Structure of Membrane-associated progesterone receptor component 2 (Trinotate prediction):
Amino acid sequence: IQFYYYIRLFKIMLEILGMWSYPLLVATLVIFMVLLIISTNLFIDYRKNSVILGKEIYKRYQCKFRKLKSDFTLEELREFDGLHEKTGYRILTAIDGVIFDVTKRWDLYGPDRPYCNLAGNDASRCLVNFRTNLVSEKYDNLLDLSVSDVENLEEWKRQYSESFPTVGRLLKPGKEDQKYDYSDDEEQFFNNNC
């Protein structure tokens, strides 16, 4: 998309410069290409640094907070939006009642990132409608979804479960959380590395 705008800008510049001399046109093209290369490299560095930051935060707090295994209400989930030190800057999001730890993709879900509205929220309706601004302020039971929307939501949940660790369930108001035990492998990891 960014490249498209550069091409369009270049065409406009050519129309404006059409009556200019050849050396001036060549100099303008060279300057344009240099600016294009610099801005592309800055964008790539920004994306790379965002990914590195997310992985560093994930590693740093992995031992401090262990692998989260807990159920949360929507109010509790909102604290895990990547902004709070008390939660280890962790980022959790819920899809169809299942909570995922998406901290390792800080470049997407971190503050001021493309999917920051999904951080600390139930992302179900947002993903079904492909709009990140549909976050609900209260628990959403999703009963009004069509059959195709439910199938779409199940596919999103499957993709997230393949990419991110599952934390627990999003609790309906008035429900109690389930107690989770750590597996022997997880206990051994934390005993050896933390």
